[in-house]
Design brief:
Helix content is 33%, strand content 23%. It has 248 residues and is α/β, with parallel strands linked by helices. It folds into two domains: 163 residues, 3-Layer(aba) Sandwich (Rossmann fold), CATH 3.40.50.300; 64 residues, no CATH class. The strands form two sheets. A six-stranded mixed beta sheet has the order 5-6-7-3-8-9, sandwiched between helices. A three-stranded antiparallel beta sheet has the order 2-1-4, covered by helices on one side. Strand 6, helix 6 and strand 7 form a beta-alpha-beta unit. Helix 7 packs across helix 8. The longest helix is centred in the last third of the chain and has 17 residues. The radius of gyration is 18 Å and the shape is globular.
Length: 248
């Protein structure tokens, strides 16, 4: 499936509580869009709206894809927790979705993904025997196993230490090439490394801060900015300042 661009414009409430007003996000096709902001400003609400997990959210506005097709069935979601089933092996967790859909010819694809995330020798292990980084690799492979053109990532690397986080950022960038990705994050450094487009969400609204980012990596290549480059460090500092200003 070809990855479309997405447009979200409008207001959202939960009950009588306003979550965000006059939001405007253009999410380009085949690129990484980062939505940066502190906890509680409504970032995950936007993700839930796109994912169709909006049972308790009232949205007034427009949400559409560039090809005009429904979003249902074209989205994969990766959350902050790995949500692995403890009684299943690595392979079993990765193949969970395909087995629930009774797709019985996916074992070769699963094994190829296990190899790509470097877990071949652990494919029969249960989650409790794996490190945190390895569990996130399983979650990453499970997300890829769904083979959807739109990837929604809700702070998936925030629980990892700095070294593992950088490694997972690089791996995800490689594996999600060509996908339309929305990454929810509260980490300015992560946004500075990974974003092709960047929005800052605060209690006052959503601001497009793409101009702060260093020269963009080629969207068609498996690239991520170097975490220690002068441009990334400068962008990280600027974004952190923006976050702190918004909290005053």
């Amino acid at each position: 499936m070809t990855a479309p661009s997405l447009t979200i414009k409008g207001d959202a409430h939960i009950g009588n509580q306003l979550i965000f007003k006059a939001a405007c996000l253009d999410i380009p096709a085949g690129a990484w869009t980062c939505l940066l902001g502190r906890s509680g400003v409504g970032k995950t609400t936007i993700l839930k709206l796109i994912a169709g997990l909006d049972e308790h959210i009232t949205f007034t506005g427009d949400m559409s894809s560039s090809d005009g097709k429904p979003l249902a069935g074209r989205i994969a979601l990766m959350s902050q927790t790995d949500n692995l089933l403890p009684w299943l092996s690595v392979r079993g967790n990765i193949m969970l979705g395909s087995r629930m859909r009774q797709e019985h010819s996916q074992s070769e694809q699963a094994d190829a993904l296990i190899e790509r995330v470097g877990l071949t020798e652990f494919s029969d292990r249960k989650p409790h025997t794996l490190s945190g980084g390895m569990r996130q690799r399983v979650a990453l492979a499970r997300t890829l196993m769904e083979d959807r053109p739109i990837m929604l990532l809700d702070e998936p690397f925030s629980a990892l230490d700095a070294g593992l986080r950088a490694e997972m950022q690089e791996l995800a960038t490689e594996l999600f090439t060509g996908k339309t990705v929305l990454l929810i994050t509260h980490d300015p450094a992560e946004a500075a490394r990974m974003g092709h487009r960047l929005y800052l969400m605060t209690g006052f609204g959503i601001e497009n801060l793409t101009a702060i980012l260093p020269q963009q990596p080629n969207q068609s290549q498996r690239t991520v900015r170097d975490f220690d480059s002068a441009e990334v460090l400068a962008a990280t500092g600027s974004l952190l300042s923006k976050l702190r200003e918004a909290q005053r």
